[in-house]
Amino acid sequence: QVQLQESGPGLVKPSQTLSLTCTVSGGSVSIGNYYWTWIRQPAGRGLEWIGHIYTSGSTNYNPSLKSRVTISLDTSRNQFSLHLNSVTAADTAVYFCAREQWLAVYNLDYWGQGTLVTVSS
Amino acid sequence: DIQMTQSPSSLSATVGDRVTVTCRASQSISNHLNWYQQKPGKAPKLLIYAASSLQSGVPSRFSGSGSGTDFTLTISSLQPEDFATYYCQQTYITPWTFGQGTNVEIK
Lengths: 121, 107
Prior knowledge:
The structure holds two protein chains of two kinds. Chain A is built from no helices and eleven strands. Chain A is mostly beta strands. In chain A, strands 2, 4, 5, 6, 9, 10 and 11 form a seven-stranded mixed beta sheet that branches. In chain A, strand 4 (34-41) and strand 5 (48-54) form a beta hairpin. The relative contact order of chain A is 0.31. Chain B is built from no helices and eleven strands. Chain B has strands at residues 4-7, 10-13, 19-25, 33-38, 45-49, 53-54, 62-67, 70-75, 85-90, 97-98, 102-106. In chain B, the strands form two sheets. In chain B, strands 2, 4, 5, 6, 9, 10 and 11 form a seven-stranded mixed beta sheet that branches. The mean pLDDT of chain B is 97. Chains A and B meet through strand 5, strand 9 and strand 10 of A and strand 4, strand 5 and strand 10 of B.
């Protein structure tokens, strides 16, 4: 059973960088045809796909965030990370990590529980 | 970006009701459409993938249909544990995008 767990600061100051890590257990981030994905959800609102990284390390980002976001893999720790720079209050949200598989279409079959990040001084 | 529009935004129903949620894409996405269920404080859970395929472990009262731009999620007989918010998602062209959600509430 694959499990994902987000970790990182719950409070980030405006203009600084938001950094989160997703630790994967029960599977390897470097094996298989999977993308490792970040999604966020502002309070009381819908879901926004931030981007993903393939097991090979290739990435794809949401154009709305592309200039500020980096997703990376750490295969030695079986983790992947999100870095979002120059944050504002609009980046306050619950951040989820998830595994994206190809099963007839791409879909998100395993998710972390989510972590709330608040941007405030 | 492909816009996904769900209707209704919310609905009230009772246990045993047949419930239908609709999702419309701003352009054709073939069958690259997934449905998720989210309960308060929890991560979304995959219910349906490729428009009509039931994810392993999901009860058979959930079903999906559609292709192109119009899709439907149906719950044949609503159960107490089904009160939640449902999201559609397209994975045809990045950036993947979600509908705004449909909140299924207890009448």
